[in-house]
Amino acid sequence: MIKKNSSKRPKIVVIGGGTGLPVILKSLKNKNIDITAIVTTADDGGSSGILRNYIDMVPPGDIRNVMDALSNLPKVNLNLFQYRFKSKDQFFAGHPIGNLIIAALSEMNGGIFNAVKELSRIMKVDGHVYPATEQKLVLHAKFKDGSQVDGESEITNAHGQIKRVWVTTTNGKAPKAIDPVIKAIHDADQIVLGPGSLFTSILPELMINNLGKAIINANAQVVYICNIMAQNGETNGFSDADHVKVLNQHLKHHFIDMVFVNNKKVPKGYIDQNKWDEYNQQITKDPDELRKHGCKFIYDDFLDLHDHGAFHNGDKVVKKLLNIL
């Protein structure tokens, strides 16, 4: 790994998964920061789900995207790493090459942790990438109507109002975060949660008992980057304060110090609902309720509009993170 006076650089730990985490990491990469990305291992859909089941490995998809975000390889190499075989290629249909490389390295190196360590070297990653745990996680959700659904993709597709989530290993036991994850949280100056799906990208890591406790006990500033849009099946009708309330309820502690909330309006009719069907309305703002949860907040323009979708502008978010750090 490339190191640049790492002992003197501020240490920022970013926790999450999905498409939101790489946005922040790409903008952090070129700053004088010691970066650690802690990535969810609960994904069970698409290529990751297939490899998880057939090869009995931790799902590689979110790890692949984080590696891409932090790599210093030329663009042509990264394009190959991220290339996804077309659906007509039956044997490899839907698999990105990067997922297959991670699968191979996991077999060669005796597990996902050593595989990621080796791949970080190969891809010239400036920072540390850790799976939240070396165990495959199963995400469970109880809905407000009393029903229960198991598995991340099934929970998302249920489109119900989620009351709470928790994680187990595939054999039903309590998972445990690996020691380097706990040490990174302990040593951090700032811990960033998100952006990402509240119940399926962020909470799965926090529900790992020793990881959640490490965040609660950390001396670091804990920042939550609130989603721009509500998500169907997860956060319909949520305000920014509702997100924080759910996080606090799950960890049974008021542990969020700062919340970043986009206040720029998404133009009416801009979002392509066919392409981005998980989007709902914009998250509403409730500053009075945020104060009741004991956290400060920043309302600002964090919006990046492209491809007829609404995303976080990584550079704007990182500028604010470094300002408050």
Automatic annotation (TrEMBL):
SUPFAM superfamilies: CofD-like (SSF142338). It is found in: Cytoplasm. Keywords: Cytoplasm. GO terms for molecular function: LPPG:FO 2-phospho-L-lactate transferase activity. InterPro entries: CofD, CofD-like_dom_sf, Gluconeogen_factor. GO terms for biological process: regulation of cell shape. GO terms for cellular component: cytoplasm. Its main location: cytoplasm. It comes from the Bacteria. Required for morphogenesis under gluconeogenic growth conditions. NCBIfam families: CofD_related. Belongs to the gluconeogenesis factor family. This is Putative gluconeogenesis factor. It comes from Philodulcilactobacillus myokoensis. The lineage of its organism: Bacteria, Bacillati, Bacillota, Bacilli, Lactobacillales.
